[in-house]
Amino acid sequence: MMKSFIAAVLLLSTAVAAGAAAPCLPCHAEKTPAAVAQWQGSAHARAGVGCEKCHGSDHDKIVRGEAKVGMKVCAPCHQKAYQEHRASRHGMGLHSGWGCTRNLTNRKPGECRFCHEEGDEVPRSDVQCARFLKQSPEMGEIGCNYCHSVEDACDSCHSKHMTDLKIVRDPNSCAKCHMGPDHPQWEMWQTSLHGTLNATTGSKTGPDCQTCHMPKGTHNVSIGITMSSGGVPYPAVKAQPARADMVNICSACHAPSFAKRELERGDQVRSQSLAILKEAEQVIWDLNDRGLLDPMPENRPPHPLSGQRLVTDSQMLYEDTSHIERLFFKMKKYDYARTVKGAYHQNPAYTHWYGNAELKMDLVDIKSEASRQKERGGKKGEGKAAAPGAEDELKALKNKFERGALSQEEYAKEKGKVLEKMR
């Protein structure tokens, strides 16, 4: 009797699936059989959610690649996941990437919704990404948008036609974006004790990405995060409740006092690393104030957002810069990130050797390069050392004051010291 019942249910679900996709199946079973097979084995097919429900009925638009199955297509049936995703850093993915494509001429009007709510002229975020703007369309699509389109693409994690949750519960699904020199969280986790326990005993003993960052299946992956993507600490009003959330997550396995102490150690590593980074940044700005960068910003292709001026914040480039800026890019984007993220992911090798040691050697390299630039007077091939004169010092101080690096009082004091030496 039970076998007959199961057979009837399967037959009914097959009939429901076939009916939902009836107009599409005859052609697509032949032209895209894998997609059809994946859909037929999905929860969507069993629920009678056919092709038109997600792709629409305008076949010409679909063929032209204009019928995007974005997040809002999924939202009506998946409201809880939609709202959680929108509240998370994944929900800001396109703000930091495609948010700046309004500067390009080849974007479609419909893409305004990446930055704006429907009918709202005020952007949800004014963050732009200069590095994306410097890339070719092909590199931008593959090298940038495959990860930075997560805001409007549920299939970034879930795949397109399959709905099996074991796909997204596997930490490998996170690795394609969260790996590499600038944010190797995957590698850090994999080679930490957490990763070792996960590989040998499973996720009940060894936590994975989803255990800590998607507790109880939430789509808000930013729970417990106390800093920006660039490692800048959040204000206390935002950081303190986030830290309490993370301690609560860690307490599923650890004593709360232990979790709090380890996270605070990570905070200290972050603060110490940021101080090293700031020291290096000031060296570069001092060269710029003295006109000694080679080449100076005014003598190279303009920055996509800031024109021909020095940029060392999150919009800094790795191309069309001086050599010392290239060293700083590695220091900030790779080594600082590895140090800090390594500390929070409990990976000693990434925190120290891949991170802290590299960070400190970067500072040595940057200081040495600055000394060479000063000795050369900023001119290629100049054989004699050129000691900076009083006029150069005064010019550098004036530039520092004008960009806000010195207060009026500090400027007057330092200027007085230089003038005193001239007497």
The value of Rg in angstroms is: 27 Å
| Unreliable parts | 5-13, 95-105, 380-387
Structural class: mainly alpha
Which band does the percent of strand residues land in? under 5%
Largest sheet, in brief, is:
none
Could you tell me how far the N terminus lies from the C terminus, measured between alpha carbons in angstroms? 108 Å
Describe the global form. globular
Mean pLDDT across residues: 86
Elements, N to C (H/E): HHHHHHHHHHHHHHHHHHHHHHH
Strand element count: 0
Tally the helices: 23
Helix content: 55-70%
Could you explain how this protein is built, in words?
The chain has helices spanning 2-20, 25-31, 33-40, 43-46, 51-55, 59-63, 71-74, 79-87, 93-96, 130-133, 137-148, 155-158, 165-168, 172-175, 185-190, 193-201, 209-213, 236-250, 256-289, 323-344, 348-376, 390-402, 408-422. The protein is mostly helical. 57% of the residues lie in helices and 0% in strands. Among the domains are: 69-153, no CATH class; 267-422, no CATH class.
Outline:
InterPro entries: Multihaem_cyt_sf (IPR036280), Multiheme_Cytochr_ET (IPR051829). By secondary structure, the protein is an all-alpha fold.
Which terms summarize this structure?
423 residues; mainly alpha; 23 helices; globular
Task: Write the SSE topology.
Blueprint: H1 2-20, H2 25-31, H3 33-40, H4 43-46, H5 51-55, H6 59-63, H7 71-74, H8 79-87, H9 93-96, H10 130-133, H11 137-148, H12 155-158, H13 165-168, H14 172-175, H15 185-190, H16 193-201, H17 209-213, H18 236-250, H19 256-289, H20 323-344, H21 348-376, H22 390-402, H23 408-422
Helix pairs in contact: 2-3, 18-19, 19-20, 19-21, 19-22, 20-21, 22-23
